[in-house]
Design brief:
Elements lengths: L1 E5 L2 E3 L6 E3 L2 E3 L5 E3 L3 H15 L2 E7 L4 H11 L3 E5 L9 H15 L2 E6 L11 H9 L2 E13 L4 E8 L2 E8 L2 E5 L11 H9 L3 E3 L40 H14 L4
Parallel strand pairs: 1-6, 1-8, 6-7, 7-13, 8-12, 9-12
Antiparallel strand pairs: 2-5, 3-4, 9-10, 10-11
Bound molecules: flavin-adenine dinucleotide (FAD).
The site of flavin-adenine dinucleotide has 32 residues, from β6, α3 and α4.
């Protein structure tokens, strides 16, 4: 089975976000694989290892996103494709889903597309369901376990993690699977993998390569607008550390909570 994993390059989770001239910026913080995507990458590799076939990582982004794709190769993905074109700048979730769906169609023989839960910068969580809708495939979001998968009958049984509990769903492949962090423990790239990825050639597809409609990409294809972007006010409040033995700390804490009418 050919499994595709969609990966976004994001600022490091430790990066400090600020707003500069009405634009969100992370300064010159390092760029990483979107942390939620690591679980999707791991699942794609495990599926390939169990059922055969190959795992391909794809990303829409600037040239720098090749580094994120190299991490995917170092972890164990077989191939990687970057979709990059100046015309894609300014794309929102709708336009991004159009581009990714077109790339998946171009790959041709895909049985499953995996995503992380959300991107830690954009944070909309919209892209997986929008891609599923465009492809007309079942969206199995918040998947915590792929309980059964038969590439022969093309039936997938997945457990979805909901606030109220778990939901077990079945669908027919091809399908879009959104993952949550408890689905697996992502592996570290191996030394050999890192060496192999460093030498790997990453295919780059342009808007023309995908035959994209100019009215559906970039700012022209993005109905979302950010009329005002502003940072939240700094949090008021202070921190006080209580010291002493555990009994003394508990007594002092109880006194303070009583004095402040918290308890
Ligand atoms: C008006 C506007 C202009 C914007 N301009 C830009 C811009 O110029 N450059 C820019 O980088 N962002 C831009 N953004 C942000 C960008 O639209 C979002 O990051 C993008 O739509 C994806 O949504 P998300 O980040 O919320 O992903 P989510 O929906 O939260 O992500 C869910 C899953 O989809 C995957 N995914 C998301 N995006 C990609 C991708 N590009 N490739 C592969 N997988 C992906 C994630 O990795 C994750 O696994 C803009 C947004 C708006 C509204």
């Amino acid at each position: 089975m050919h499994v595709v994993v969609c990966v976004k390059q994001t600022p490091d989770s430790a990066a400090k976000m600020s707003v500069d001239n009405g634009k969100v910026t992370w300064g010159d913080s390092g760029l990483v694989v979107n942390p939620w995507d690591e679980y999707a990458i791991e699942e794609a590799i495990r599926l390939k290892e169990k059922h055969g076939g190959k795992a391909t990582a794809i990303s829409m982004g600037p040239e720098s996103a090749k580094e994120a794709l190299k991490t995917c190769l170092a972890m164990g993905c077989d191939e990687a494709v970057l979709i990059s074109d100046p015309a894609l700048k300014g794309s929102d979730a709708l336009a991004t889903s159009y581009v990714l769906a077109k790339a998946i169609e171009k790959l041709g023989d895909v049985g499953m597309v995996l995503f992380g839960k959300q991107a830690i910068d954009g944070d909309t969580g919209l892209v997986p369901v929008a891609v599923a809708r465009r492809l007309n495939w079942s969206p199995l979001t918040y998947t915590i376990k792929i309980a059964e998968l038969d590439p022969g009958t093309k039936i997938i049984k997945a457990e979805r993690l909901l606030e109220q509990g778990k939901q077990i769903v079945t669908a027919t492949l091809p399908a879009v699977v959104g993952t949550v962090k408890d689905i697996n423990e992502p592996r570290y790239p191996s030394f050999m993998g890192i060496r192999k990825a460093a030498k790997a050639v990453i295919n780059t597809w342009s808007a023309a390569d995908l035959g994209l409609d100019a009215s559906q990409i970039g700012a022209a294809g993005s109905p979302t607008h950010w009329p005002r972007v502003f940072p939240l006010p700094a949090r008021a409040g202070s921190v006080e550390l209580i010291d002493g033995t555990p009994e003394e700390i508990a007594a002092k804490l109880a006194d303070k909570l009583l004095a402040d009418k918290v308890i």
